[in-house]
Amino acid sequence: QRSVHLHPSILSADFSRLGEEIARIPSADAVHVDVMDNHFVPNLTLGLPVVEAIRRATSLPLDIHLMISDADRWAPGYAEAGAESVTFHAEASGAPIRLARELRARGAQAGMALKPATALEPYLDMLTELDMLLLMTVEPGFGGQAFLEVVLPKIRRARQAADDAGVPVAVQVDGGISAQTITAAAEAGADVFVAGSAVYGADDPDAALIALRDQAAA
Ligand code: DX5
Ligand code: ZN
């Protein structure tokens, strides 16, 4: 069995009772927190004060996905807040290598995300600077969108490049992950899976995430 991780996205949870919603997913490998600024993406969610409150409300690791402009300025604060990983978008950083190093220096794993149409190849040389590469499988901004199969070859190329170079970088997929799509993403080489609506849309979110993880590992 491959080692796979399932990170439920609380974007699909009830924001008025986040602590209780996170308590419904005790088997999660981490809690995926989507930070949006109404500028990098056309949606607005939450920021550092809420992340700090979530940090106090759960002992699960926090996987912070920053969909915000000017990531170089804002991302380090999320590492300071005690996130296990902080993922910024390559499209929103002027100095991604420097930022990844700064995140690691502040004790977080460094993640970098690419939108579906952003090419992988310009970033292959910096995989050693990253703990996680997030390949978006929807346009970032909203939960509940359909998985973009067009990204599957990019997942394959990322996994191949990391394996060829012997770089232990995780390949995360986010967007449209469900029982219908997770096997294709896993077969392409993803090993960290974000799921929002497929977890929180279920009657039993913990059972749903366990079933998805088992399916990805099969
Ligand atoms: C979208 C977010 C995702 C979102 C995924 O921009 O980055 O994390 O919550 O939601 P689903 O799993 O419903 O596609
Ligand atoms: Zn996300």
TrEMBL record:
Gene3D superfamilies the record matches: Aldolase class I
Entries under InterPro entries matching the protein: Aldolase_TIM, Ribul_P_3_epim, Ribul_P_3_epim-like, RibuloseP-bd_barrel
Co-factor: note: Binds 1 divalent metal cation per subunit.
A Pfam family that the UniProt record links to this protein: Ribul_P_3_epim
Associated pathway: Carbohydrate degradation
Keyword line: Carbohydrate metabolism, Isomerase, Metal-binding
PROSITE patterns attached to this UniProt entry: RIBUL_P_3_EPIMER_1, RIBUL_P_3_EPIMER_2
Binding-site positions, a divalent metal cation: H32, D34, H65, D174
Cofactor or coenzyme needed: Fe(2+); Co(2+); Mn(2+); Zn(2+)
CDD domains, alphabetized: RPE (cd00429)
One MF term in the entry's GO annotations: D-ribulose-phosphate 3-epimerase activity
Source taxon at top rank: Bacteria
Principal EC category: isomerase
Record-listed E.C. numbers: 5.1.3.1
Keyword Metal-binding: yes
Catalysed reaction equations from the record: D-ribulose 5-phosphate = D-xylulose 5-phosphate
Active site (record annotation): D34, D174
Binding site residues for substrate: S9, H65, G141, F142, G143, G144, D174, G175, G176, G196, S197
Known role: Catalyzes the reversible epimerization of D-ribulose 5-phosphate to D-xylulose 5-phosphate.
Name of the protein this chain belongs to: Ribulose-phosphate 3-epimerase
Organism: Citricoccus muralis
Gene that encodes the chain: rpe
